Amino acid sequence: MICFICCRIKMRENKNDGEIKMTQKSSASDEHIKLADSIKSVHANLRQRLRDGEQFSQVWSEHLLDDQVLESYSNAMNALANQHWTKLEIESEDTSRIIWTKKKILEYYHNGGINNQLIRDNNRLKRHQEKNEQVTKVQQGKEETKQENIIEIDKSLENKTINEQLKLLDVGSCYNPFSKFKEFDVTALDIAPVYENQVYKADFLNLNITDKSEFTEREVISLESCSFDIVVFCFLLEYLPTNRPRYECCARAKQLLKENGILVILTPDSCHQQRNNSIIRGWKEALLQIGFQRVYYEKKQHFHGLVFRKLGAFQHRLALEEANLPGIAKEESNSATSDDDIADDIVTVEEVAAKFVIPQDFNSCEPNLLKKRSEAPKLEEKNGTETELGFDQLPDL
Length: 397
Fold this sequence. Notes:
This protein has 397 residues and is an alpha/beta fold. The chain is 45% helix and 16% strand. The protein folds into 2 domains: 2-91 and 367-396, no CATH class; 94-357, 3-Layer(aba) Sandwich (Rossmann fold), CATH 3.40.50. Helix 1 (2-51) packs across helix 3 (67-91). The termini are far apart.
């Protein structure tokens, strides 16, 4: 009888413990949903102002001066990252975009990835020369030029050691997640930084790119061109409410990267892999036209991970020819995207920038995300299917 009573008591205790844990989990879930919704509401407001006919330059300038909104956004993102995402990373590394990014960077720089890309360049050059073999035979001196253009595999790049820090620029960082990795020398920028995390304040779209990097205690004055091994855009492009500034960010990344340096783009998406394939394909084309070639691409549960390499001018031209893509008109672009004699066919910057779309661009209206979620109206894409907001799964990343 005593044993029976003890068992009943134990069962009640287990039940109560379970109820407490469920309550705690529900409370945490509610909190991170609220944080995510406050972040998404900022994005939605910027997009809505453009739909209402305001110019991006005006909307963005006013946004940068709205200290209350920026501080609220920064606090929400910092809390979301440190209170929720870090726990999920421990439970499952597969959900972590930070761990995914680190692995891909080290695979590229430490495990032969860059060497494979240089071999790829050599093979592309050989195909180009074989294609034009008959022409080169009848032109005096072409054989010598052919040999000069052969790219030597740079073994020093392949042999970068773990003790050599890679220079990483984290744009839109807020809380500087890559600073914990000893492999990286990190410069973190944000328009609403958490200063205790060693993040500098800077508007990347208007940042000076010169021959020297200069900083104050809290802000970036300028960054040196061609000085970084890695530039990271983690959920950055979705913040921007239209495609032209997304293009400008990528063009600026090219200016800041060393040749063969890599641009890492992470974009949120909890749909199945094929759902937004056409959007990702458009991004790949536009990035190649700017001067980046894809190295890695992976669709994870809640995000797309893309890694692109900055091509040299000659390899950029060959890559465009093989992809049958036109280059960007010099008179329409800046030095970040123009190479001498880049291609016979050209397009305008606007035509290339138009490829940098996100699913939210197709929404004619967006709900107030701070309303009760059950009250928010469903949104429809052009194809008539219900669309998720880009950061709907933000707490799960």
